[in-house]
TrEMBL record:
Occurrences of domain Dienelactone hydrolase (ranges): 28-238
Top-level taxonomic group: Eukaryota
Family annotation (Pfam families): DLH
Name this polypeptide is given: Dienelactone hydrolase domain-containing protein
Record-linked Gene3D superfamilies: alpha/beta hydrolase (3.40.50.1820)
PANTHER family reported for this sequence: DIENELACTONE HYDROLASE DOMAIN-CONTAINING PROTEIN-RELATED, DIENELACTONE HYDROLASE FAMILY PROTEIN (AFU_ORTHOLOGUE AFUA_6G01940)
Amino acid sequence: MSGDCCRLPPVQAEYTAKGTYTTIGDLKTYAVGPEDAKIAVVIVYDIFGFSPQATQGADLLASQGYRVLLPDFLLGKYADGAMFAPGGEEKRAKFFSAFPGAISTQYEPLAKFVQSIREPGTFEKVAAVGCCWGYKVVAGSNKNAGVDAIIGTSPSFAAPEDAENINVPLLLLPSGGEDMEVMSAIIKSVDQKNPGKNFLKHYSDMPHGWMAARGDLSGGKATDAYADGYNVVAKFIKDTF
C-alpha cells in the first residue's frame, strides 16, 4: 500500500502545533482539524505524552480533513528522555514501578472517550491510532472500544492472540524492534475476518517509536520515514472509509 495519493504538509523540525487543548470526557485533549468532520481519529500516544512529534503527527492527519484527538490518558505523568540516558536507570525503574498507564487500566478510559465523542452523533467513523504501548490499549480495549479501524505503529507487547479482539480493518507499522513473525500472524488472522482490508508495512531500519516521541525530525532518512508513516496512515483511513 502506497501513500502517494495523500498530500500531507512537509514535516518540520521547528514546529508550532496548530491545534488547541480542550477537555473531552474529563480528559485533557489535544484537538485539531475541522469540528464538522465526519471522521475522527483518536491517537493513544506513547509513554512520553504530548511530544512535539505526537502533536505534529496529529496535525498531519488533520490536514486531510479529519478531526484528530489526542487524549491525555496518562494524566500528565509521562516518561522523559533522561530516564533512558546513562545513569537514568533508577528514575526509569521508579517511573515504571508506578506506571500510570498499565494497559489493563486503559481499556475503560479509551472506550469511554470513544463513546463520548460518538454521542453527539457528529462522527460517522472513528479510527484509533496506538503508538507503542498505545497499540496494545487499542487492540485490547473492550472489543476495540467500538472503533471502525485500528492503526498500530511500533506496536508494543504485541501477541498473535491480539487478533481475537480485532474485528475491523487493521494497519500495522512495525519498526526494526518488533517481532515480524508476530506482526504477520496478527495480520493473517485479522485478514480472515476482513479480507484485503488489512496492511503491514515494516520500517526495518527505524528505531522503536520513530513515529512518536523517538522520531528524529531534523532531516534525513528518519524524517522521511516519519513522514511516510503518517502518509500511509492517512491513505489507509481514506481507503478504509
